[in-house]
Amino acid sequence: MSIKAVVFDLGGVCVASPLHAINAYEKEHGLPHNYLNFMIAKWKSPSPMNRLEMGAIEAVDANFYKLFGEHLSDPEGYEAYLKQFPETKRTKAPVVDGETLFTRMLDATSTPNEPLIAYIRQLKATGKYKVWALTNNFPITTKTDGMLHPLFDGIVGSVQVKLRKPDPRIYQLLLQRLDLPANQVVFLDDIGANLKAAKKEGIRTIQVDFRTTPKAIEQLDAMLGENLKAKL
């Protein structure tokens, strides 16, 4: 069955990923590899970051920075990380500045993926597809919102719907809003777990990040039966 809707993630796809800032912070401060991602995604879930994405924490303020920093600096979390990654050399439990890290994460997402954005404009100009975004977002306005939001016919944001990827319910809600069966929808994201969850709902998927954008555009063109890349 032909594709009727193309859905894009934002951070890591249409703009640079906050993961770049997380990796840079780890290197600069001598933190173990993937420690911060472990603490954000695995330790005492939902973490302050996850709660922010779902609107349970309503503001990015001093209170959030404190919660975020304390969570990432939890010695018990560090011990849990060491158990999962026993090859890691033990050091003193990390102390993370929540405000500095989060600010840098936001700054990282201010860099647009220009080739993909140009493609989205071409895609929308055909008038043949619903062009939407599905994103784990924050309760703030970012530097790129004014540029990104007009690209899409609709946006499902985690803060607004109180759900975040990869919860199956957010994909089900997306399909309801698109009013389409899953096999007529393709979703582009940079994170494997998010794509895996979409596939379980029957949605077609393409993995993409800044490095693989040309390949992803070719894949999407082929899936749609288009040659929009030739117009870029």
From TrEMBL:
> What InterPro entries does the record point to?
ACAD10-like (IPR052898), HAD-like_sf (IPR036412), HAD-SF_hydro_IA (IPR006439), HAD_sf (IPR023214), PGP-like_dom2 (IPR023198)
A Pfam cross-reference name: Hydrolase
Q: Per its UniProt record, what NCBIfam families does this chain match?
A: HAD-SF-IA-v3 (TIGR01509)
Look up and give the organism this protein is from: Protomyces lactucae-debilis
Q: Which GO terms describe its molecular function?
A: phosphatase activity
User: So which domain of life are we looking at?
Assistant: Eukaryota
What CDD domains does the database record attribute to this sequence? HAD_sEH-N_like
Q: What name has this protein been given in UniProt? A: HAD-like domain-containing protein
